[in-house]
């Protein structure tokens, strides 16, 4: 009796790698995350895992909940006046509460449970009391993202499940480790911190002088006078905002280098936005354009890691020359 030869159809199908996206902290530069995600979708790469810190947590939340296109359209329409009007100034825990901004998000965007989504999601925050790194992977997604967005001295801490949370960038500015823990085989990281040292907090913090008519000194509001005090800077005396911004930037840059040296992603994209201040949220078009440019410039390498490129294309090594905008892992520890 003749025996049948096994056919190719009997062989197990190749299982594609799980693609993870680690979206880093960096305030207004985070709009580049929108361009990166749009670019990845266009080249056929759809991350199944998204981990975000600070602005990365917010953009990641919008993406996994299926609201990226609407959100991208909205932020590109923001003017400096719009940004200023969304800031609820305070002297309690920071300069801005953030309730007005995130209250607006909750009014116009869906707020699904994280565990109900098709993609896995994690928001990285910092427990103010213990200093521990907190990964939020359950519950309503917008509060989870908000818990990660509390830059010390700028945005007030957020109470989340009876604990005060600070910005996730204090402990894990580019959450590669969180993406891997959620099951990612290949991690594409977006590092906004490589150029942050030396950047100021905001031209938006000084937007009052740009959007309002000059008023007599006696008629100026408390916040107009306070704004001048906190933002005025000279070569002999840096402003309050400059000191806070530089301190946060230096810290996040050093932490990013250390964390990514120990757990390097397969691809690191570094947006070239050196002239962005931390709160230049009205410059979304520029940042989104840069994110898309990065993906386009490195499309072959990204496809290769994702397992969807032609056999002729090989993933780049982690040392040596890197494609445009991609930082080799070895460079992260320098």
TrEMBL record:
Lineage summary: Bacteria, Pseudomonadati, Pseudomonadota, Gammaproteobacteria, Nevskiales
Keyword Lipid metabolism among record annotations: yes
Motif (DGA/G): 167-169
InterPro entries the record matches: Acyl_Trfase/lysoPLipase (IPR016035), NTE (IPR050301), PNPLA_dom (IPR002641)
Enzyme active site: 54, 167
An example Gene Ontology biological process: lipid catabolic process
Residues of the PNPLA domain: 21-180
Span(s) of short sequence motif GXSXG: 52-56
NCBIfam families linked: PRK10279.1
Keywords from the UniProt entry: Hydrolase, Lipid degradation, Lipid metabolism
UniProt protein name: NTE family protein
Superkingdom, taxonomy of origin: Bacteria
Example GO molecular function: hydrolase activity
Biased composition, class Low complexity, residue ranges: 320-334
Region described as Disordered: spans on this chain: 312-334
PROSITE patterns xrefs: PNPLA
């Amino acid at each position: 009796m003749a025996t049948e030869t096994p056919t190719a159809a009997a062989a197990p199908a190749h299982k594609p790698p799980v693609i993870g996206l680690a979206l880093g902290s960096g305030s207004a530069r985070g709009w580049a995350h929108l361009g990166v995600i749009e670019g990845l979708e266009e080249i056929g790469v759809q991350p199944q895992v998204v981990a975000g810190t600070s602005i990365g947590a917010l953009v990641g939340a919008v993406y996994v909940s299926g609201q990226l296109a609407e959100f991208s359209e909205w932020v590109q329409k923001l003017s400096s006046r719009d940004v200023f009007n969304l800031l609820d100034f305070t002297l309690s825990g920071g300069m801005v509460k953030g309730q007005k901004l995130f209250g607006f998000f909750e009014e116009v965007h869906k707020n699904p449970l994280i565990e109900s989504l098709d993609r896995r999601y994690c928001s990285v925050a910092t427990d103010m009391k213990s200093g521990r790194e907190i990964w939020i992977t359950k519950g309503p997604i917008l509060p989870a993202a908000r818990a990660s967005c509390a830059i010390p001295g700028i945005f007030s801490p957020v109470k989340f499940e009876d604990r005060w949370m600070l910005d996730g960038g204090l402990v894990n500015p580019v959450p590669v480790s969180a993406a891997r823990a959620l099951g990612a085989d290949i991690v594409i990281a977006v590092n906004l911190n490589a150029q942050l040292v030396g950047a100021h907090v905001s031209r938006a913090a000084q937007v009052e002088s740009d959007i309002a008519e000059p008023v007599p000194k006696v008629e100026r509001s408390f916040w107009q006078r306070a704004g001048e005090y906190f933002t005025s800077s000279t070569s002999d005396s840096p402003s309050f905002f400059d000191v806070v911004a530089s301190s946060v930037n230096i810290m996040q840059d050093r932490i990013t280098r250390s964390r990514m040296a120990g757990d390097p992603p397969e691809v690191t994209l570094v947006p070239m936005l050196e002239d962005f201040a931390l709160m230049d949220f009205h410059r979304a078009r520029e940042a989104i354009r840069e994110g898309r440019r990065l993906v386009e410039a490195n499309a072959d390498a990204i496809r290769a890691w994702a397992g969807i490129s032609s056999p002729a294309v090989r993933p780049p090594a982690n040392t040596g020359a890197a494609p445009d905008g991609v930082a080799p892992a070895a460079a992260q520890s320098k």
